[in-house]
Amino acid sequence: MTRTLTALLATTIVVSAATAAQAQELNLYSSRHYETDERLYSDFTDLTGITINRIEGNADELIARMEAEGANSPADVFLTVDTSRLQRAADMGLLQAADSDVLAERIPANLRDDDNLWFGFSQRARIIFYDTADVENPPQTYVDLADPAYEGMVCHRSSGNVYSQTLLSAIIEHYGEEAAREWAAGVVNNFARDPQGGDTDQLRGLVSGECDISISNTYYFARAIRRDVEGLNEADRAQIGWVFPDQGGNGAHMNLSGGGIAANAPNPDAAVAFLEYLASDQAQQYFSAGNDEYPAVPGVPIAEAPASLGEFEADDVDLAAVAENVPLAQAIFNDVGWE
Q1: Residue 271: what pLDDT?
Q2: Which pLDDT value is given to residue 35?
Q3: At 172, which helix (H) or strand (E)?
Q4: 126 Cβ partners below 8 Å, 6+ apart?
Q5: Nearest to 98 by CA among 226, 261, 209, 211
Q6: pTM
Q7: Three-state secondary structure call for residue 141
Q8: Are 213 and 203 in contact (CB under 8 A)?
Q9: Cβ contact 257:273 at 8 Å
Q10: In the chain, at which end, N or C, are there fewer CB atoms within 10 A of the end residue's CB?
């Protein structure tokens, strides 16, 4: 596939005249549902003249749609909030490799597929939050969450949630299947209630007293710092502490939002241009400022709200390998009774 960007500077995209003439539209299949992403799309159009046509939905539904459409699929780019769905699409032959020096240079190797079928563009750290009034010694690692000392204290999402799946998948990658199974069983024994709700609900559970320890992606808490979130006002947040787990060890687990080029993309040059734009400083800064995420490109400044949570060491595990472990993770969840 021809590389379409002749230069990528701090906030400027330069698109070749040939590409602009050949492709004036991009068909985007996206499971990202954030209003703030509108700025990404409009800025890309302003910079390139390429119009974005969006189909939005659940990632699994979009994958099924692409599979059913086959060679006639209009999809150019598939964008999701997790790498496990990207890996599934890749395994199903629904993505093609992107030949791009820009992406290879800017996206770290552990945040992209080994064959360049998908790339990560924004990150969220999955960390431990706790009630400072009730928890004197909070867990310092993910492994600690299974410690019997925390029996009846932990709130977590369901096993069907991708964030739950990728965390267990990373534990499998680090410690092996048997240790991961023991860990999952231990966490189940420590549940304060049956798994339920989203990440914001796990944080609200600390405020309500329903649980003492919970797990959430950082951007849910950072969002409440930046703007009003029901049940997480300033007074509510004052009682919540947090731990970036495994510092000095594996590092904090990162969830990755990313995208890849559809296997039958009718506008492949525009697709490369769009992915390269997402890797630009301009887009990376907006992922952070607009949606409280961490940039995937090293050196891009982090916005004030997520930066206020503090510096931390991130897990540099190969997220493509983690994505491959998801089916095993779900089987373990089922075996240990993690609903």
Answers
A1: 98
A2: 77
A3: helix 162-175
A4: 163, 167, 215, 216, 217, 218, 252, 253, 254, 255
A5: 261
A6: 0.89
A7: coil
A8: no
A9: no
A10: C
Secondary structure of residue 134 in the 3-state scheme: coil
What is the number of alpha carbons within 13 Å of residue 325 lying toward its C-beta? 26
Residue 283, C-beta contacts closer than 8 angstroms, at least 6 positions apart: 40, 43, 44, 121, 277
Element (H, E) at 63: helix 59-69
- Looking at the chain, which runs of residues are DSSP E strands? 5-8, 13-15, 25-30, 51-56, 77-80, 95-96, 119-131, 154-155, 213-217, 240-243, 253-262, 294-295
Of residues 138, 100, 149, 102, the one with CA closest to residue 8: 102
DSSP 8-state secondary structure symbol assigned to residue 303:
P
**250 burial via Cβ count (<10 Å: 0-12, 13-18, 19+):** buried
Give helix 281-291 / helix 37-48 axis angle, nearest 10°: 160
255 exposure class (CB count in 10 Å sphere: 0-12, 13-18, 19+) = buried
**The two structure tokens encoding residue 288:** 């952070």
The span from the CA of 166 to the CA of 123, in Å, is 13
| C-alpha distances in Å from residue 131, one per residue of 99, 141, 152, 184, 239 | 48, 17, 14, 22, 6
Dist CA 202 CA 211 (whole Å): 8
Burial 70-81 (b: 16+ CB within 10 A, else e): eeebbbbbbbbb
**Which stretches within 190-229 are classed as H helix?**
199-208, 218-226
- How far, in Å, are 21, 88, 174, 258 from residue 320 at the CA level? 35, 10, 14, 12
What is the pLDDT at residue 315? 96
Q: Helix or strand or coil: residue 54?
A: strand
Residues of the chain with confidence (pLDDT) below 70: 1-23
pLDDT computed for residue 11 by the predictor: 35
Question: What's the confidence (pLDDT) of residue 23?
Answer: 55
Angle at 268 between CA 262 and CA 274, to 5 degrees: 85
Cite the beta strand spans of 16-166 per DSSP E.
25-30, 51-56, 77-80, 95-96, 119-131, 154-155
What would the two tokens of residue 158 be? Answer: 């369901």
